[in-house]
Design brief:
The protein is of the alpha+beta class. 36% of the residues lie in helices and 17% in strands. Among the domains are: 1-30, no CATH class; 263-373 and 437-541, Serum Albumin, Chain A, Domain 1. The longest helix is centred in the middle third of the chain and has 21 residues, at 307-327. Belongs to the gamma-glutamyltransferase family. The active site is at residue 375. Its EC number is 2.3.2.2, 3.4.19.13.
């Protein structure tokens, strides 16, 4: 028995090498080579979405058009993580102006739902499903905002790929098939869920054909009628009537008044590279705060995967996440000292709090100026040099369980992420945007695009962004290796929803880190374990400006595809 256990432990440690086999070059954990192309590139978490994007590019559309096509397809083929019932954020590199543009397409809470209503019900947290966590879905307005400013192809052509597959069907892939039965079991009590997602009475199995004709009809109305077909037409009226029937608060007025917002991306310079994120209400600046803290350490002398590497990373995360819990919220309702939070002097103050030999069990938010989540990320680049970094989500799994009659999609439960504690930046209020986990990212070098990338996975996303940046800049990995490298997660920090950090939390490590590292982390006071499926997914396009070549990457945790031409 002991020999068997020892053998199993050895297999776990060697798993990344066994998966990757014996590569001719590069890191042993890389699952494939980088994809290279000159004229266009699309990297998404599903091959059909990648192919839809490439078809749009080949037909004369640009990267923005192709990204919208891919996102529409994603809502069909990966309904367990995104869809038109959710929100969207994007960063666009526009080749003409040679500038980055940020879009916040997140929705707001209902006008008629108040904090007092939650308090009257005796709730300390907003529930994860049902009518209460539903906020306005911003995705469709995000598509049309992007298209109005940058698009070329007709929206009828852009959405035609998703419409066709929704009508004709597509084979359900591995990851969706894994989560689908749980969704049916959890949300089957609500109207229209089984009719839409389990029309045979059971969740579709891997490789079975799934059709969503109701979604095809909805997308067709949007393609022909524009964003108003969703926010002011029949679709809005159907959502309003359904939510009233379910005892909900989202109304036609909430939908009609929705607007996206163009925002200025914010950045920090990490060892000569400018890393860009979007400002709150998203959590993107947590990645910038972490990078600023970590820049103070010389990782050329700290081996990748060593206790020193992981300890510094986790302690920097704890500090950034305390500020995340205190400050990040809708800037229309709260004062958020963004520039101070991402400043180098503030990072130096925070870095001084790290004990290099001991895990912190409690940290406080600074005063600079005075978790589960399921998501898709995709990135597209075109021959003109335009690049799009786009992320979209329903938040927790399929969403809230609320499927309006005959529309073929589920409304998000993003409203779960408000705090119900009076007086906090992220405390619930009517017509307010909640704290958001989804974050696209971009890197420039000397004023030119270097890489468009993102990592999915709720609260893990800032950690994922930092690991990608460090893997490439500190440890010399290529975009594919940077995404395939075993990941580090940490849970237990304070949250914008009111939870407080009470101990050192839990580090979870993917297979591939040596036991000696785990043992030393435990000696420093960390609790270390394994997690299953909580490390996000990743897509990236790096631009080689000298040779004018795109380098695309997708990673093995998802069923994605990087492809170009």
């Amino acid at each position: 028995m002991n020999k068997l256990i020892a053998t199993l432990c050895l297999l776990i440690l060697l798993l990344p090498r066994l998966i990757a086999q014996d590569r001719l070059s590069g890191k042993s954990f890389a699952t494939r080579a980088v994809v290279m192309a000159r004229h266009g590139m699309a990297c998404t978490s599903h091959p059909l979405s990648t192919q839809a994007a490439l078809q749009v590019l080949r037909s004369g559309g640009n990267a923005i058009d192709a990204a919208i096509a891919a996102n529409a397809m994603e809502g069909l083929v990966e309904p367990h993580v995104n869809g038109i019932g959710g929100d969207l954020f994007a960063i666009v590199w526009d080749a003409k102006t040679k500038k980055l543009y940020g879009l916040n397409a997140s929705g707001r809470s209902p006008y008629t739902l108040t904090l007092a209503e939650f308090q009257k019900r005796g709730l300390t947290h907003i529930p994860a499903d049902g009518p209460l966590p539903v906020s306005v879905p911003g995705c469709v307005d995000g598509w049309f905002s992007l298209h109005k400013r940058f698009g070329k192809a007709p929206m009828t052509d852009i959405l035609s790929h998703a419409i066709r597959y929704a009508r004709e069907g597509y084979p359900v892939h591995d990851e969706a098939a894994f989560y689908w039965p749980t969704m049916v079991a959890r949300f089957g009590k609500y109207p229209n869920v089984k009719e839409t997602y389990a029309p045979t009475g059971a969740a579709p199995k891997r490789g079975e054909l799934f059709r969503n004709p109701a979604l095809a009809n909805t997308l067709e109305k949007i393609a022909k009628g524009g964003r108003d077909a969703f926010y002011k037409g029949d679709i809005a009226q159907t959502i309003d009537a359904f939510m009233k029937k379910m005892g909900g608060y989202l109304s036609a007025r909430d939908l009609a008044d929705h607007t996206s917002e163009w925002v200025e991306p914010v950045s920090t310079n990490y060892r000569g590279y400018d890393v860009w994120e979007l400002p709150p209400n998203s959590q993107g600046i947590a990645a910038l705060q972490m990078l600023n803290i970590l820049e103070g350490y010389d990782f050329s002398t700290i081996p990748w995967g060593s206790p020193e590497h992981i300890h510094r990373f986790v302690e920097a995360k704890k500090l950034a996440f305390e500020d995340r819990a205190r400050y990040y919220a809708d800037p229309a309702f709260a004062t958020i000292p963004v520039q101070a939070l991402i400043s180098k002097p503030y990072a130096a103050e925070r870095r001084a709090l790290i004990d290099l030999n001991r895990a912190a069990s409690r940290v406080d938010a600074g005063n600079p100026a005075l978790k589960q989540g399921d998501t898709i990320y995709l990135t597209v680049a075109d021959e003109e040099g335009n690049m799009v970094s786009l992320i979209q989500s329903n938040y927790r799994g399929f969403g809230s369980g609320m499927v309006p009659d005959g529309l073929g999609f589920m409304l998000q439960d993003r409203g779960e992420l408000y705090s119900l504690i009076d007086g906090q930046n992220n405390t619930y209020a009517p017509h307010k945007r909640p704290f958001q986990t989804i974050i696209p990212a971009f890197i420039t070098k000397d004023g030119q695009p270097f890489m468009s990338f993102g990592v999915m996975g709720g609260s893990f996303q800032p950690l994922g962004h930092v690991q990608i940046v460090m893997n490439m800049i500190d440890y010399g990995m290529n975009p594919q290796e940077a995404g395939d490298a075993p990941r580090i997660d940490h849970q237990g920090s304070s949250e914008p929803t009111g939870e407080k950090m009470t101990d050192s939390g839990l580090i979870t490590l993917e297979s591939g880190y040596p036991y000696e590292t785990i043992r030393e982390l435990m000696r420093r006071g960390h609790k270390v374990g394994y997690g299953l499926g909580g490390y996000g997914g990743y897509q990236a396009i790096m631009y080689d400006a000298k040779n004018k070549i795109y380098h695309g990457a997708t990673e093995s945790r998802k069923d994605g595809q990087a492809a170009g031409f």
